[in-house]
Amino acid sequence: MIRIGIVGGTGYTGVELLRLLAQHPEVQVVAITSRGDAGIPVATMFPSLRRRVNLKFEDPAKANLRNCDLVFFATPNGVAMEQAPALLDAGVRVIDLAADFRIKNVAEWERWYGMRHASPEWVEKAVYGLPEYHRAAVRNARLVANPGCYPTAVQLGFMPLVEAGLVETDQLIADAKSGVSGAGRKAEIATLFAEAADNFKAYAVSGHRHLPEIQQGLSTMAGHPVGLTFVPHLTPLIRGIHATLYARIKGEADFQQLFEQCYGGEAFVDILPPGSHPDTRSVRAANVCRIAVHRPQGGNVLVVLSVIDNLVKGAAGQAVQNMNIMFGLPETEGLAQLAVLP
Q1: What is the DSSP letter of 166?
Q2: Where are the alpha helices (DSSP H) in the chain?
Q3: What are the boundaries of each domain within the chain?
Q4: What is the distance between the alpha carbons of residues 28 and 44, in angstroms, rounded to a whole number?
């Protein structure tokens, strides 16, 4: 059994990790930390985990995380860069669900996240954990930077096109919408029920923290820098991301076939039939990205629709997928859950 620790087990991604790992046949969660809730049984805070998770939250300073095979950091930005290096030096493998190790340009990261990076030497060593593109590197990684939710939906939607060089990459557009759980489990005016319900708005139009992450990934795929306009929106949903992606065509191809061939062997990317319109509830609680490809009026702009559950394929599910790859397990192990309807 793989011995697992979770740092930061009280947020939405933390409890989603617990939900998935509690059903995983090859792992044993041995430690869950929370500085503010140490000593409280996990199932007291999250009754959905009763009779499945019998641990108590521990103070991270006292938890025996070095006895784990792998530790997940489901913490705010800035925590893993302080705490992960000691575990890595002790031989523990780490998956960080925050942004601490995603952006290779440390100065760029510091500019977007507003803090000095505590362990820049590990940034270069970290593997960006988008399995559909970096699977081979993830397999041997000691430290995996789990992608953000918006970056997952956007990169998977654009990947076949930019890799093939079939679209203009200087003016890509990503118009993305997210449910309120993407903001995390915290008290914040913008995500209060009375503020978010019956409402729909764009935010961070001048620049969102996920923009440099998406540009870095797409530039790697394209082999040169890309230009991207990324506009996120907050929707009155709990879960889900819907990304509508626009790209100007510069080379003719059977685009439906291109996507089907690119993702034909992928367990967690589903290319829908021509004319489909994926919705967020078709992926709710499932580790899958559903994609549809459109060419409106046969014109020169391609429209790609990409949907994920931000807490699963956009966070905890993708982290478990990366764990499976790192330990040589079937990639689908513990991730066979179907989407929840209605």
Answers
A1: -
A2: 12-21, 42-45, 80-89, 106-113, 120-123, 131-139, 149-164, 193-196, 210-222, 255-263, 317-326
A3: 2-125, 149-310
A4: 20
Structurally, what CATH architecture does the domain formed by 149-310 represent?
A: 2-Layer Sandwich (3.30)
pLDDT score at 287: 98
pTM of the model: 0.96
Q: Tell whether omega for the bond before 342 is within 30 degrees of 0, i.e. cis.
A: yes
pLDDT at residue 200 tops 80: yes
The reply to whether domains 2-125 and 149-310 share a CATH topology is no
Distance CA 260, CA 264 (A): 5
Q: What class, spelled out in words, does domain 2-125 have in CATH?
A: alpha beta
| Residues 138 and 129: beta-carbon distance below 8 Å | yes
Neighbours of 258 (CB within 10 A): 17
Rounded to whole angstroms, the Cα distance separating 292 from 259 reads 9
Answer for the pair 139, 327: CB distance below 8 angstroms, yes or no: no
| Catalytic annotation, residues | 149
- What was the pLDDT predicted at 268? 98
Q: What percent of the chain has pLDDT over 70?
A: 100
How far apart are the C-alpha atoms of 101 and 94, rounded to whole Å? 11
